[in-house]
């Protein structure tokens, strides 16, 4: 694709973004304790630590799912058409 090895890096980045964007918060993330409800509603008397790695990861996953939804459709379509034509 792009400059020999750089194309594989683009594929890996797109695949990782796809994986993050399809994670179901109810079916997967909440089961392992990474849902937004656990992160944003601490127990009685507990303080919510927004600086923890877990809280930042939950916010990153939610942000990627929100921001990258439409661009990923276009990027995936371009990659599929490229592979079909130039394969």
UniProtKB/TrEMBL annotation:
<feature type="transmembrane region" description="Helical">
    <location>
        <begin position="6"/>
        <end position="24"/>
    </location>
</feature>
<feature type="transmembrane region" description="Helical">
    <location>
        <begin position="66"/>
        <end position="85"/>
    </location>
</feature>
<dbReference type="Pfam" id="PF08571">
    <property type="entry name" value="Yos1"/>
</dbReference>
<comment type="similarity">
    <text>Belongs to the YOS1 family.</text>
</comment>
<dbReference type="GO" id="GO:0015031">
    <property type="term" value="P:protein transport"/>
</dbReference>
<dbReference type="GO" id="GO:0000139">
    <property type="term" value="C:Golgi membrane"/>
</dbReference>
<keyword id="KW-1133">Transmembrane helix</keyword>
<keyword id="KW-0472">Membrane</keyword>
<dbReference type="GO" id="GO:0030134">
    <property type="term" value="C:COPII-coated ER to Golgi transport vesicle"/>
</dbReference>
<keyword id="KW-0653">Protein transport</keyword>
<protein>
    <submittedName>
        <fullName>Protein transport protein YOS1</fullName>
    </submittedName>
</protein>
<dbReference type="InterPro" id="IPR013880">
    <property type="entry name" value="Yos1"/>
</dbReference>
<keyword id="KW-0812">Transmembrane</keyword>
<keyword id="KW-0813">Transport</keyword>
<dbReference type="GO" id="GO:0005789">
    <property type="term" value="C:endoplasmic reticulum membrane"/>
</dbReference>
<dbReference type="GO" id="GO:0006888">
    <property type="term" value="P:endoplasmic reticulum to Golgi vesicle-mediated transport"/>
</dbReference>
């Amino acid at each position: 694709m792009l400059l020999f090895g750089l194309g594989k890096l683009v594929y890996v980045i797109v695949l990782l973004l796809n994986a993050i964007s399809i994670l179901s918060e109810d079916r997967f993330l909440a089961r392992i304790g990474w849902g937004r409800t656990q992160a944003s509603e601490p127990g009685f008397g507990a303080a919510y630590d927004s600086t923890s790695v877990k809280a930042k990861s939950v916010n990153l996953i939610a942000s990627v799912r929100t921001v990258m939804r439409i661009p990923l459709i276009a990027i995936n379509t371009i990659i599929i058409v490229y592979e079909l034509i130039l394969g």
